[in-house]
Automatic annotation (TrEMBL):
Residues 105-203 form the TonB-dependent receptor plug domain. It is a multi-pass membrane protein. Residues 40-51 have a biased composition (Polar residues). It holds the Pfam family Plug. Residues 40-71 are annotated as: Disordered. InterPro entries: Beta-barrel_TonB_sf, Plug_dom, Plug_dom_sf, TonB-dep_rcpt-like. Its main location: membrane. Residues 54-69 have a biased composition (Basic and acidic residues). One of its GO terms (cellular component) is cell outer membrane. This is TonB-dependent siderophore receptor. The lineage of its organism: unclassified sequences, metagenomes, ecological metagenomes. Keywords: Cell outer membrane, Membrane, Receptor, Transmembrane, Transport. It is found in: Cell outer membrane. One of its GO terms (molecular function) is siderophore uptake transmembrane transporter activity.
Length: 799
C-alpha cells in the first residue's frame, strides 16, 4: 500500500523541490525581509497604526499620543484604510446558505463553516479542493487533476446538479468555479430543506461574490514547477449619491501540475455591479466567465478488485498518449437580484422583499485516454471464479480507451421571490418568510445518430479500445487509430423542472427561546431520456419520468442563555434523485429516495472574536450497492437496507489571541451500512468516509519580545489528519490514514496597512505519499493519489 511507498524512488514531477528551488525561495524571502526593513525606515514617521498589532499592551501615555496623532491626520488615515486595510481575522459573521431571513450566523440552527477571502488568499486557493480542507466533514469523492471535482459532506456525495450555489442560486456543478471574484465560500453541513430543492442530503456549498468598493489590486504568483498566475481586481463607487458600484476581475493562469503532461491554462473575466435605486431598493448583478484547457488525470482501480496499487507515483499519467486531446471547459454564471423595503410606515418597516434569478451554463469537450478494467485480458474473463473485469487485473494490467464526448451542455436556471418580515402578538414575535421558486435543469449530450448516419458516427460518445498497459511498466504509445470516429449528435438527455412554495415561521418566545417551523411544498417533474431499455433491444433508451408533489419539512429550536451563546436542535427531511447504476449493471437510474436528519449543537462567540461550534448529528438514507444476480456472476445495482451516519463536529474560527488567528475543524463520523441482502456489506463503514478527520490552519504574529520579531511577518502552519478509508463495501480493502503538514508565511513591509503583501505557502512539506480518496464515479470505485510537496509564491500590490 502507498503508506509503505515513501522509500521508493520518486519521479521528477513528484519529488520534493530541488535545493536550487529552495535556495531561490530563500533568497526571495530574504529580499522581502530586506525590503521590509528599508520600507520601515522610510515610513518610520507615518502615524498609520497597523490593523493588527503585536500582543504587547501599549501604555496609557502612548494611547493618548496615538489618539492625538490620528486626529491630526484623519484624512490621510481614511485614504489608507479605503485602499489597503487588512483584518485577516478569519472570523465569519454572516451566512447566506440555509438562511432565508438573514439571521446572524451565531443564531442559525445549522452546522456551517465559512472560509473567508483572507483565508483563501493565505492558502493560495484556486479550485474547490483547495478550500474544502478547512472543513473536516468534507472530503473529495472523485476529484481528478484537470477535471471538475465531486465532493462528499458527512459521507454523502454532493449532487452536482443541485448541490452548489453562487449567492444562494443553484449552478451547474460540472465546472471549476473561479475564485478571483469570491468573497467567501460557505459550507452547510447537513440537510438544507428550506434552502434547496430536491438534492443530496449531505449539505450545500455556496460561493459569495465580492461586492463593489474602491479597490485596485494586482496579484502575481508562481510555483516551483514553473506555473504562473496573474489577477487584476478593480472596483469603484461613483455617482452623485454614490449609488453606483462596479467590480471587475481579470485573471490568467499557466497551470503546471505534478502529473506528467497534465498542464493547462485558463482565462477568467468577472463583473459585479450594485445600483442603489432608492433609499430602500438595491439592484445587484454578477457575471463570470472562464475558459479552461487542460488534460485530466484518471484514477487507479484496485488490482483484481482486492489489492490497492503499489509502487506507483503521483507523476504518472495512466495510459498517456502524445496525440490525445485536452479537456476544454467554457462556463459562465450570471445572476440578478433586487432587494427592497415596503415603506416607512411602522408595520412596513418590518418587511422586506427580494427577487433573484440566475443562469449557469457549462460547455465541456470531455477528452481523456481512459484506463478502465481488464475486459481484454484472459484472466478477467473466467466468470465468477476469476477477478471482476471492471477492476484492473491482478498483475496491474488495464485496458485504455479513447474517450471523447464533445459538446456536453449542462444548464441550471433558477428564479425566486421571498418576502420577509415580522408580526408581534403580545409577548411573541413571528418572524415570517414566504416565497416561491422555479428551477430548471437541462443536460444535452451526444446521443443516437440517425439511421442514415455514416458508419463512423458513434452511438453517443466515442469510446474505442486502444490496447492494454500495466501500472508497473512504461506507457505504450498506440497509433491514433480512432481519429476518424466522431460522437453522435447532441440530444436532450435530462430535463428537470421544480417549483416550490417556501414557508417559515421563526417564533421568538420569552426567555430567549425560538421555535422555527418551515419547509418547501415542492413539485418535481424530472424527465430522463437516457434510461436503458431493459425490456427490448429497440429503442436502446426510453424516457424515465419522475413526477412527485411533496412536503419537505424543516423544524428547529434555539435557546440563547447568553447573547453570545446559542444552543439548537433541528429535524429535516430531504428527497434526492436516485443514482445511476454502473454500465456493467445496465446503467439504469434508481428511484428517488428520502434522507432524514436530527441534529443538536451549540455556538459560542467569546468577545466577538472567535466562533466556536459543536454538534451531534444522526442521518439515515437507503444503501445502494451491486449484487450478484445469477451463477454466471451477472450484477445488478440495487437499493436495499440503509446507511446510518452518526457524527460529532467541532470547529473554531477567528481570533484566539492577539497574536494567533485560527481556522480549526474536527469531525468524527460513523457511516454504517445495514440491512442489505449481502451479509458481508452489513455493519461496515461506507467507502471513502474516514472515521476521523482534522484540519488546522493558524496565522501567527511573532510577538515583539522575541529577537526574531519582524513587523508585518506572519507564519502560517497547517496540519490535517485523515484516518483509514475503505475502498470496498465489505471493508476488506482500505487505504491508510495520513498526516499532512503545511507551512506558509505572509509578509507586508511596513505593517498590515502596507501596499505590498508577499506570500509563500508549501503544502505537504514532508512529501507524504497517500491516497486522497477512494470515491465512486457512476457506481465504479477509483483511488486517486494525493499531491506531493508544492511550493507557491505570490506578490500582491494595492494601488
Amino acid at each position: 500500500m502507498i503508506d509503505n511507498a515513501t522509500t521508493l524512488p520518486v519521479h521528477n514531477f513528484g519529488k520534493f523541490p530541488s535545493p536550487s528551488v529552495f535556495a531561490a525561495a530563500c533568497l526571495f524571502a530574504f529580499a522581502f525581509l530586506a525590503s521590509g526593513r528599508i520600507s520601515s525606515a522610510q515610513t518610520s514617521n507615518t502615524t498609520n497604526p497597523p490593523a493588527r498589532t503585536s500582543p504587547d499592551k501599549p501604555t496609557k501615555k502612548s494611547k493618548d499620543q496615538d489618539a492625538k496623532k490620528s486626529a491630526a491626520i484623519a484624512p490621510v488615515t481614511t485614504t489608507v484604510l479605503v485602499h489597503a486595510e487588512r483584518n485577516d481575522d478569519y472570523l465569519p459573521t454572516a451566512i447566506t446558505v440555509g438562511n432565508i431571513d438573514g439571521t446572524p450566523l451565531l443564531q442559525t440552527p445549522v452546522s456551517a463553516t465559512i472560509v473567508t477571502r483572507d483565508l483563501m488568499d493565505d492558502q493560495f486557493s484556486r479550485v474547490l479542493s483547495d478550500v474544502v480542507k478547512n472543513d473536516a466533514s468534507i472530503g473529495e469523492d472523485y476529484a481528478p487533476v484537470g477535471y471538475y471535482g465531486d465532493f462528499e459532506i458527512r459521507g454523502f456525495t454532493i449532487d452536482l446538479a443541485t448541490g452548489l450555489e453562487i449567492n444562494g442560486l443553484t449552478i451547474a456543478g460540472e465546472q471549476d468555479v473561479p475564485f478571483e471574484n469570491k468573497e467567501r465560500v460557505e459550507f452547510l453541513n447537513g440537510i438544507a430543506g428550506l434552502e434547496s430543492g430536491v438534492t443530496t442530503a449531505g449539505g450545500l456549498i455556496n460561493y459569495v461574490t465580492k461586492r463593489p468598493r474602491l479597490v485596485k489590486t494586482l496579484h502575481l504568483g508562481t510555483d516551483h514547477r514553473g506555473g504562473s498566475y496573474g489577477d487584476l481586481d478593480l472596483g469603484d463607487i461613483f455617482g452623485s449619491r454614490k449609488q453606483y458600484g462596479m467590480r471587475f476581475n481579470f485573471a490568467g493562469e499557466d497551470i503546471h501540475t505534478y502529473v506528467n503532461d497534465a498542464n493547462g491554462w485558463r482565462g477568467v473575466g468577472t463583473f459585479g455591479g450594485d445600483w442603489k435605486l432608492t433609499q430602500q431598493a438595491t439592484l445587484t448583478g454578477n457575471f463570470e466567465y472562464q475558459h479552461l484547457v487542460q488534460h485530466s488525470v484518471a484514477g487507479y482501480q484496485l488490482l483484481g478488485g482486492a489489492v490497492v496499487p503499489y509502487q506507483v507515483y503521483p507523476s504518472t499519467m495512466l495510459g498517456e498518449q502524445p496525440w490525445s486531446k485536452p479537456n476544454t471547459f467554457d462556463t459562465f454564471n450570471t445572476s440578478l437580484r433586487l432587494d427592497s423595503g415596503f415603506g416607512k410606515d411602522s408595520w412596513r418597516r418590518n418587511w422586506r422583499v427580494f427577487a433573484a434569478a440566475g443562469l449557469s451554463h457549462s460547455l465541456i469537450d470531455d477528452n481523456v485516454i481512459y484506463p478502465y478494467g481488464c475486459y481484454y485480458e484472459a484472466v478477467c474473463n473466467q466468470g465468477p471464479s476469476g477477478p471482476p473485469p471492471y477492476f484492473f487485473a491482478p498483475d496491474g494490467t488495464y485496458d485504455i480507451y479513447d474517450y471523447r464526448d464533445p459538446g456536453e451542455v449542462r444548464q441550471d436556471a433558477q428564479a425566486e421571490a421571498v418576502a420577509v418580515g415580522s408580526v408581534t402578538l403580545g409577548p411573541i414575535r413571528h418572524n415570517l418568510a414566504i416565497g416561491g421558486e422555479l428551477f430548471l435543469r437541462s443536460v444535452n449530450l451526444p446521443g443516437t445518430p440517425p439511421a442514415n448516419a455514416p458508419a463512423n458516427v458513434q452511438d453517443g460518445a466515442v469510446y474505442a479500445y486502444l490496447g492494454s498497459e500495466n501500472i508497473f511498466q512504461n506507457n505504450i504509445v498506440y497509433p491514433d487509430s480512432t481519429a476518424n470516429l466522431v460522437a453522435g449528435p447532441r440530444q436532450l438527455y435530462e430535463d428537470d423542472h421544480q417549483s416550490a412554495l417556501l414557508l417559515q415561521d421563526r417564533i421568538a418566545l420569552p426567555w430567549h427561546f425560538q421555535l422555527i417551523a418551515g419547509g418547501r411544498f415542492t413539485s418535481l417533474r424530472d424527465h430522463n431520456f437516457g434510461q436503458p431499455n431493459l425490456v427490448s433491444s429497440t429503442p436502446a433508451t426510453v424516457e424515465l419520468v419522475t413526477d412527485k408533489l411533496l412536503w419537505l419539512p424543516q423544524y428547529a429550536a434555539t435557546w440563547n442563555p447568553r447573547e453570545n451563546l446559542t444552543i439548537y436542535g433541528n429535524y429535516s427531511v430531504m428527497l434526492s434523485l436516485g443514482p445511476q447504476a454502473p454500465f456493467w449493471a445496465g446503467g439504469y437510474y434508481l428511484p428517488p429516495f428520502f434522507t432524514r436528519q436530527a441534529e443538536v449543537g451549540a455556538k459560542y462567540e467569546p468577545g466577538k472574536r472567535l466562533l466556536i461550534t459543536g454538534d451531534l448529528f444522526h442521518m439515515r438514507a437507503p444503501f445502494f450497492y451491486p449484487q450478484v444476480t445469477d451463477a454466471q456472476g451477472d450484477l445488478s445495482f440495487i437499493s436495499a437496507g440503509h446507511e446510518t451516519h452518526d457524527g460529532i463536529e467541532f470547529s473554531a474560527q477567528g481570533i484566539a489571541t492577539d497574536w494567533l488567528h485560527l481556522s480549526a475543524s474536527v469531525a468524527g463520523i460513523s457511516a454504517i451500512s445495514n440491512g442489505s441482502e449481502t451479509p458481508s456489506f452489513n455493519g461496515k463503514q461506507v467507502i471513502n468516509q474516514p472515521h476521523l478527520r482534522t484540519d488546522l490552519f493558524a496565522d501567527m504574529l511573532i510577538p515583539r519580545k522575541y529577537a526574531f520579531h519582524i513587523v508585518g511577518l506572519h507564519l502560517m502552519p497547517g496540519w490535517s489528519l485523515t484516518t483509514r478509508k475503505f475502498a470496498t463495501r465489505d471493508d476488506r480493502v482500505s487505504v491508510g490514514g495520513y498526516n499532512l503538514f503545511n507551512m506558509g508565511a505572509r509578509y507586508t513591509p511596513g505593517g498590515e496597512n502596507g501596499r505590498v503583501t508577499f506570500r509563500m505557502y508549501a503544502d505537504n512539506i514532508l512529501d507524504k505519499r497517500y491516497w486522497k480518496d477512494t470515491g465512486a464515479s457512476y457506481g465504479d470505485t477509483f483511488v486517486h493519489l494525493g499531491a506531493p510537496t508544492t511550493v507557491r509564491l505570490s506578490a500582491e500590490y494595492r494601488f
